[in-house]
Fold:
Amino acid sequence: MLYSYSVEDEKVQIFSMFIENIINGDDSYKAEVKRVLNEVKELSLESKTLFSIDRNYFTIIMKLFESNPQFFKEVNLDDLKTAEYQVIEDSLKKNENFIYA
Amino acid sequence: MNVQLLELHLSQLISAWSKSKLNIYSDSNKDSYHQQLGDLLHYLTKEDFSKLSIIDLEFRKRTIDFIFKGLEFLDKSTLNAFPIEIVECLNVALNDWIDNNDYIIVTSLNNSLSSFSFVPSLDFDDPLLLFIKTNYNVEFKKRLIQINLPKSFSKDYFANVVLYHELGHFVDIKYKISEALAKVLFQDYKNNKLSAQEVIDLELFFPYLTNPEYSDNAKLDFVKQHFGEYFSDVFAAQYIGKCSNYYIDYVTNSNSGTSVTHPSTLNRIKLVNDFVDGNKNSIIDCLLDATQQITNNRTLNKRYNHINSKNFLQLLPVEVTHSNQLSSLYLLGWELWQNYDLQFEKHNSMAYKLKASKRYEIINNLIEKSISNYIITESWTKSKLNVSN
Structure:
């Protein structure tokens, strides 16, 4: 009966704000962001599956993975540049377009 | 972000807070949570919003919403309006699925007869909780989950079997079981990786898969929604067997149609029957397998026991000796109702036939009293243990 997507949308938006903070030079959330991005990378490299990735950040991980799997396969998470954070933030802002034909 | 509107938002919160200050709750966890919300509000009122960046203002807006939502949940769960017996049963079930169950279940009684639901919005927002901890050093170790149920049914142990289905939604959303499973199965279906039987079952339980009028995205979206319902039905059946079938079949008029949000009632009933009766069904196999993998080896299985006591027939509560028998009381009530053959009259030498409404009242009271006795006994046992230690 209840199945709200809005909580998940909120999480995506707040995660986006974490990334924006990093871009603006505030590293308060950098460790958490890196942990989540690492999940995306592991999913891209198939060392993790949809059943084993972090459940709390599932929607964010899937959104990033589906938007740009190749980017996450190749990116070096230990040395992320501002431009790469920007790519990640843009990926989160992409909307899915469901077509109910 | 408009600073004036944010200040209006905060003013509205302060007003709501002042009305909640005298709330009396049924347990100390809710008191502590209320206090933490107060601490957070205190920090917010000390800030000068005009000096914050746009992004920091966005964080504050969400923090104010978080406190508002917490208050809204707690306000409806004060001592006089809390169905403690029903919540105890759900909490016992939740313990099966969550390590170190840190949840505080609160309730909201609504005026709509169909308004059964769980509101998980204060549990799942981990990024916001991280922001709050980082900025204000306020850590919410307990999480609130709200159960909505109709006011008319707040003491009804027949209709409330569906709350086990709603608890299933909570567990499903927490672990993202149906979402992950839907994606995997849909891909395998598209790529012809499923067995012939799996395809037959999938097309039976998700009939729109063969409809060329729907796009793949739309189909996947439906499959996700419907897997969520199927998971929650099977989850509930672990605790209350086929009881929710009786109720859902009646309230939906045995609906054979599929909607965007729900599978057909006929399919839902078939799936539950297959699960309870142990019939081969590849959809159930997929649900079991995914659940086990995702939830660290927790299994969907029948957790209820048939209670053999004749106490109800003698108008006495049943003595519940273990928490895992609590949900079985609902079954006992439903079985008695469904197979009623003047048992109350016969066992108590009544010279007249009880009206159905009286039977309803008796069974409800007996279930509630049985749960209540269990809660009191448990509480005494724990107190005695604490004293002796």
